[in-house]
Amino acid sequence: MEALTHTFLPVYDGRSRILILGTFPSVKSRENQFYYGHPQNRFWKVTAALAKSPAPQTVEEKKNMLLEGHIAIWDVIASCEIEGSSDSSIRNVVVNDIAGLLQKTNIRAVFCNGGKACELYEKYCEKSCGKKAYKLPSTSPANAAWSLERLIESWREATAPYLE
Length: 164
What we know:
The chain is an alpha/beta fold. It has helices spanning 27-32, 43-50, 59-68, 98-103, 115-124, 126-129, 148-163; strands at residues 2-5, 18-22, 71-75, 77-82, 91-95, 109-113, 133-136.
């Protein structure tokens, strides 16, 4: 069990309409110093489909694609104890100031990338944020039951009313 602190900032701007929350950066993401760094994670392919953009490769391309697509991203957890990348091992959670982010943006809806992010948001953030979060199927490679096409379809259906 390792005590870790989230070290990178949320991605958002004044045009962001939706916020997508993960739990906490994976080992690969921590190494890369940016969100969804595991090469098998389908997050960038899914959000590229939402943004009607080619899948980004560099951190700069990823940030630009999100901002152009009116998508903000962050993680629920600011610091915690965690084993590797295992969400189920997370203990001693300190959350990010998501309510503060929502107050200074025009974000219309909050989405969680998977069940654990949603569970943490509901437990620690929903009351202070005053917004219910919508649970999206996880883009993690551990969620092998969901094909890329099915993920894109589900995410598009959930987010479309807020991104149109």
